[in-house]
Amino acid sequence: MTQEQQQGLNLDQWLGAYAARANTLSVSEVRALFAVVSRPEVVSLAGGMPYVSALPKELLSQSYETLMASRGDIALQYGSGQGDPVLRDQIRELMALEGISSSVEDLVITTGSQHGLDLLSGLFLDEGDVVLAEAPSYVGAIGIFRHYEAHIEHVFTDDDGMSPEALQESIDKMLAEGRKIKFLYLVPNFGNPSGVTLSEPRRHKILEICRRHHILVIEDNPYGLLYFDEKPPMALRSYNEDGVIYLGSFSKILAPGFRVGYVLAPPAIRDKMVLANESALLCPSSFSQMMISEYLATADWQKQIDTFRGVYRDRRDAALQAMQEHLPGVRTTKPNGGFYLWLTLPQGIDSKAMLPLAVKELVAYTPGTAFFGDGTGQSNLRISYSYPTPDNIKIGIKRLATVINLQTELLETFGHKGAER
Amino acid sequence: MTQEQQQGLNLDQWLGAYAARANTLSVSEVRALFAVVSRPEVVSLAGGMPYVSALPKELLSQSYETLMASRGDIALQYGSGQGDPVLRDQIRELMALEGISSSVEDLVITTGSQHGLDLLSGLFLDEGDVVLAEAPSYVGAIGIFRHYEAHIEHVFTDDDGMSPEALQESIDKMLAEGRKIKFLYLVPNFGNPSGVTLSEPRRHKILEICRRHHILVIEDNPYGLLYFDEKPPMALRSYNEDGVIYLGSFSKILAPGFRVGYVLAPPAIRDKMVLANESALLCPSSFSQMMISEYLATADWQKQIDTFRGVYRDRRDAALQAMQEHLPGVRTTKPNGGFYLWLTLPQGIDSKAMLPLAVKELVAYTPGTAFFGDGTGQSNLRISYSYPTPDNIKIGIKRLATVINLQTELLETFGHKGAER
Q1: Which of A60, A405, B249, B388 has the largest count of CB atoms under 10 Å?
Q2: What average pLDDT score do residues A254-280 get?
């Protein structure tokens, strides 16, 4: 929407007062969908919501009671900008499961890992700076990078994650253009939206390339503990302390409603993160942090993660089974963890143009273009199997097949002109 | 600290990678104090912490149980970027107490009102833009404005709040310098750090001046309901819907540990606020919001605010009484609500230089320079009476008197050279 159109719609008398960065904000394709897909008759394979109903509420009630009886006044008070030291110590244990050793001083608690990425982007990105990212990449990260007016350079990514050769090419290209590369951003385990995992050999190669070019790596890992069969390789941070910033989150292994994530960063960056956190919101919620801290201290949280793994494994199975049954000709990634399938539609079908037809068939997904900063992804779409029941996933994919098959037939009848242009 | 010094201390290998805005972050004078004053033998009159012990915990336990029994899965899930509609509706009732009528659509829930101000500043402030603010002004706001590289223009403020004549002069001066004024920021009720309240006639004059110059007003009102005797005048927003953005908070009337505040803004600005909120942290904490919503629905929250009023009134009384007894020659504001006294020291005493001596006498305060963007405030200091008991307030002020009186004696013996320079 142009400023003139906006003015026409909103009669915004403050239009002349906004900062340049205010124009970088737009309704994301995922967010805009939420209104449509909240109707109960629609099977939504669109949102990436965790299935929090699988969390027994009594585990939290115990945390609440212990917390209020022992440290209620601290939980209700302002805390430090770096976050609760007890929780930070517990997070070290969590990160050790992925091979990370760290000190409690190097962690900063954030209001979800989204805010961690927002603060980091604020620390590093000037207008025009380059962020290297997977193709496709997390929609929320793309939104942040755009907001800081960065250039997002997508790097070819396949079933083993980001390609080191393609990364080297992208770096060379950016440097040849005289651009300043600020960091590489990636979700190495069960990526959003791809579902793919970066292989161990590639982890080493990518770290080596970034070390050689002095490029910081931001490793965003909300899904790493939600593997279905074998564990993913160790975290990139476990191989490199000085060149990797690690982002973690309780949103997928506990509950997103608390908005608690964390950032592990080299000391000088961590110092700036704490100041940025304080400037933005004084301190993260003591109450949320300490609820989680009590939960980790009193509940069998590893068993709860096992429960979540089982739930999502069943849903992944249902999704892949339905894909095989109803859409055998459509290529999909086959994730070993996390929340998502990434589909590649037959040539000529535009997933965004198809969405209204899908919603008419009572199924929703996220169009692939949401996961690129450069407008590509038209023939892709993301299916999220984390929230609907296995039965609804099957119904949803069957409905999706109806729409896709109709589109394919139309293309076969009337030719591939759209795709060949 | 210069970049070179920082590099020497931290060996920051990423020093060349930071964005320009990263250099705007520095340890605030208030924050840096926290380490020193947390020793139990020090009476801290420095931090602005509310006395959350005055909140009966059973009021929250009831909220927790009702919430988890009825809407637990929603409280644990991601919510909307604008915030819980039920809570937004309840906030309308709260704002009505200060004369504000609004629609539920015009409210955005934020992670404390600090984050509301951060997001608004991001929407409006380009480098070099002017923010008009009280003299003195809230330290957290100054930090944000600096972070967005704005110029903070302080406007003379006395016991009736900001002077409309001085505001007009500041505007004229800024316009003559060719600067772009983005908004006026003020805390009209029981201001932090001044404790003063903007009089009703001045509210109208200030709104009229801003209307005439098309300057947006940001009204930050965390303390308005914490009056001790008569209610403060109606909110500025109650007189002007289109030109005032209103910030409210649950930090002082309930508990800061939840990090829940809210912004009431004209529709076009509100739309951008929602997008900025989503970009920064996806959504505010559902759990925190719904805990507060249940509290407002089930507890007698107006009675609880009365309880807080009584607590802070007693402490204000203790502080003013101790001032009269031990420091009769030091000028102080006499707040009718809120958390703070603002002291003006005898000529020649530098409150920042005096702080180490005060801490040696086991009392802490916040130096006046923290509340100015331009280095002034050397002869002022802020006393916060919200957190220590009345007895400790008296002990603290007595200790402060020892330090101030010693400084005064030294000055009288050795002359006012320091002050006359």
Answers
A1: A60
A2: 97
